[in-house]
Amino acid sequence: MIEVAPGVLWMRLPLPMVPDHVKVYALDDGDGWTIIDTGMDSRRSRAIWQGLLDGPLAAKPVTRVIVTHHHPDHLGLAGWFQSNGTSLLMTCTAWLLARMPVLDEQALPTAEQIAF
Fold first, then answer.
1. pLDDT digits over 26-58, tens only?
2. Contact 31/63 with Cβ under 8 angstroms?
3. What is the DSSP string of 11-43?
């Protein structure tokens, strides 16, 4: 974790692919922390976040998470933060794009998918 400006913390979380990391931020918003992006949902990322929450971020609660876009390395742990009482902020389009893969269940490909 590096403080890049007063109240702005920068962290790199590992990814199991190339690129091998994602940049995430913690912003001191007075009464708590605002997290910008969360990293992928993995045991390793959860353990890193838990260490940050129990360590350098422990003085204040995380009050909100802002997700910049729908890729799983940016929003993967948003639900984990929400389950701990954190508000989630992201655009409707990004939320819909993130939900689409899990909502579009089909036993067989449609004719349109095959044609595409």
1. 999 999 999 999 999 999 999 999 999 999 999
2. yes
3. EEEE-SSSS-EEEEEEEE-SSSEEEE----SSH
Cα dist. 3→6, 24, 52, 102, 113 in Å? 7, 12, 13, 36, 47
Could you tell me the CA-to-CA distances from 13 to 5, 45, 78, 95, 116 in Å, in that order? 19, 7, 14, 22, 35
Cα dihedral sign for 65, 71, 76, 82?
positive
- Euclidean distance between CA atoms 46 and 52, whole angstroms: 10
Instruction: Say if residues 92 and 67 touch (Cβ distance below 8 Å).
Output: no
Amino acid sitting at position 31: D
Encoding tokens for residue 69? 């876009």
